[in-house]
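Late entry, written up from scratch paper. The run itself happened at the end of the previous shift, but nothing got recorded in the book at the time, so transcribing now.
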Amino acid sequence: MEITDRCRDLIVKAYKDFANWEYTDGDTRVESRIKDTDDFKYRKVFTYRPLRLTYSKVEYSEEKCEAMGVKSADRPLLKKLADYWQSIFPNGNPAFPDFSFFYEFEKAKIKIPQGKVALVRNYFGVKDADQKMECRVKPTKMDSSIAPDPDLKDSEIIPWKTDPDEFLEANVRPYAPDFWYNDDETKIGYEIPFTREFYRYTAPRPAAEIFEHFRTLGEREQELMSKILGK
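Output as recorded:
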């Protein structure tokens, strides 16, 4: 887009005046706004929600391991857990929450390394939004931190001058009552949203006017087709 001499003169005048004003020269318009630096500053807050799982069909198969890309070194642990589970519940079991599932192995002194908890959950667990008991980072330690569901991680862009807690309570809490965020993970950034700052709403044409426009186009089309077909 070429900037004409007239446009350049208006821009220079607006820059020189340094004021909230609108400069016009015929059809050319330049709008100037003075903003505080913090008006363009924002917080990016990451929100989390609890992981909720149930366990009902605890079975092992090589086919499932292949499909999930489970490493060969991890498969013996999964098979051991599945074999033990079927030995205590040969006729199946009701849906167990995460704590109860892992506690059964703890009672049997079957050790599941902390680094393999996510693997076990992904392999045997099923997401259940209706499950009231949240998963914990350390599954059988109720004083352990709540484990976040990676699929429910989200982020919010909050204007710097807006209180983050008030913003989240008003815009996130009504739809995700169990959310939380870690202020240490908050990122600070700047954005100059030209469209939002300078957008001016233009009302659409009335429906009757639009309909008349299409009717006229239809008539012109019929006239052209008649000329082409010689009718």
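Residues 81 and 110 are 8 Å apart (CA to CA).
(Scratch paper discarded after transcription.)
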